[in-house]
Amino acid sequence: MRRLSGASFLLYILIPLLGPSNGADTWTLDHPLADDGQPLISERGSFALGFFSPSGSDSRYIGIWYHKISVQTVVWVANRQRPVTGSHGSLSVAANGTLIITGENSTVVWSSPPLALSDPVAQLLDDGNFVVTEADANASDPNSFAWQSFDYPTDTLLPGMKLGWNLTTGFNRPLTSWASAIDPAPGEYTFGIDLRGDPQVFEWSGTRQVWRGGPWNGVRFAGIPPMVSYNKISVQFFVDATQVVYVFHTIDASIVSRLVMNHSGTAQRLLWVDDSKFWNLIWYFPMDPCDTIFPCGPNAVCDTSRSPLCGCPQGFQPKNPTNWELRDGSDGCVRKTEVDCRNGTDGFVLVSGAKLPDTSSSTVEWVGTTLDQCKAKCLKNCSCTAYAQANISGSGSGCILWSTNLTDLRVYGSGGQDLYVRTAAADVGMYSSVSLSLDRWLREARSRRQLGAEAC
């Protein structure tokens, strides 16, 4: 590919003309990208950038979409809050490298952050990233990007994009849904990473949490078991002094996949099926009633295989029996017997197949911590209420320690992990079942009442 530059141009854009015979790109600097012009096409033809209108709308936006997919699927929008009306829009690059979208009467409707380049060029890369660099920079080196669309995602995460935080600058990259199917303005729902405690993925409606994907456990997010069900996608989660980010890649170059925060409030993993010409939904969340944020109250367990959904772990009982009889478990569970840390008699009960409780207030220890050491650390801390392995890959490593009530705890038929809940010695081994169902608790309560009446 050949790049041309011209410092004398005040505003310019690089526009490729895809050759019909050999597919080569030719770059020119003679005019901005106009609404009635050809879109920018990435080198191998994977993505296009240009003006588009959502179905049923006359508003015009600069967006990026899959060039080789017959169903136009927009993955990024620049001017999502201020569309261009009419057909007088244009996209330009200022002499310092700032991208500018203008509408009628050359009114600026969107611009990228100010840059300070001397000889800038703009390029749509074949991974769908739209970048601005110096003309002599290596466009394959992300460190050369003065600006990139991957830093400003809309509702879609593409392979290689980072979801999450740059801790050095405090810059966050969440997904934000469209307002509706035909309006790419920022919508009600966002999907991103919460840094508190052990970092987790969440979905928010405005500022209200509506779904929790849980912490990363070395294999997947604890609340998204299907993440590992498709072996053509590799996933990574990086936590260090500079970043907390999630990234995915497709192992097979022929696989086209995206992660979307849908305008209806569902996070979706989709695969393109070229033979059938449709996007195949392979998993989504929230998926069931137990995915609702905090469905059963503190220290309760949500289980979709049981009716009612909410139950108490071994050694716990409903806090509000009257409401539980009415199938309302929002008050949660309380201990049957208080723990006795000073005498060292406490034990742990296993909740298997668990989506780990909310880790916003938990602590994580990584160095020299086996599962037995996690247990010992929890027993030594009188405020510790539960522990789990932080990383379940390989032989396991690290500890997550909770010192508060356990909230948003659920179990899966498959795909969960082990959680160890602190329990008084008197309640350890009371039942072989991990959780106490409401029906069992009611039977016991009725039996106690009956015995009391006979004693009288």
From TrEMBL:
It comes from the Eukaryota. Pfam families: B_lectin, PAN_2, S_locus_glycop. Residues 1-23 form the signal peptide. Involved in sporophytic self-incompatibility system (the inability of flowering plants to achieve self-fertilization). Coiled coil: none annotated. PROSITE patterns: BULB_LECTIN, EGF_3, PAN. CDD domains: B_lectin (cd00028), EGF_CA (cd00054), PAN_AP_plant (cd01098). Its EC number is 2.7.11.1. GO terms for biological process: recognition of pollen; response to other organism. Residues 286-322 form the EGF-like domain. Residues 341-424 form the Apple domain. Keywords: Disulfide bond, EGF-like domain, Signal. This is non-specific serine/threonine protein kinase. GO terms for molecular function: protein serine/threonine kinase activity. Residues 25-145 form the Bulb-type lectin domain. It catalyses: L-seryl-[protein] + ATP = O-phospho-L-seryl-[protein] + ADP + H(+); L-threonyl-[protein] + ATP = O-phospho-L-threonyl-[protein] + ADP + H(+).
